[in-house]
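Worked example
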Amino acid sequence: MIDSVFLNGTVGVGKSTVAEALSTLETKSGHHHAVIDLDQISRAWPPPKGDRFNHELEMANLRDLVVNYRRAGVEHFILAGVVEEASEIPRYEAALQSSGFLICRLEADAATLTRRLRLRHADNASDLEWHLGRAGELAAILRVASIDHFVVDNSGSSITATATILKERAGW
């Protein structure tokens, strides 16, 4: 039984937005669930040497959050983040105490990603430049890694339609 859905994808693809939409569907279904935005639980500066994206902090925080969420009765986890390597999947499964782990890679065409990132980083040119560069780089890494169970194009579909596909694929 799937109890954890991991929304994987490059920056600007809509992982957090889709996670919130899936949460809304889960609430309507009466399922006890938690949404965890992995970017938020790894935010700390400066990152330790050799851990550019605070991944180890993310994993430690995830393990601790899951203990508390499970104690509170959470049945389903919705994660928004990035997993680039197959070797990381067992670490996420263990941190989540997961009995079933489903990874969906969200994709969006280049024009959609650029538009979203320009809106998100309109006030910071250096952040925009970094994210525009990272979007293509990370999308290529994720395509090559090919560790996702399925891929959904999140360019033009409604967020609710994308979340509904995830809910159905998870069997929720």
Notes: The mean pLDDT is 95. The chain has seven helices and five strands. Helices lie at 15-29, 38-41, 55-71, 89-96, 110-120, 125-145, 159-170.
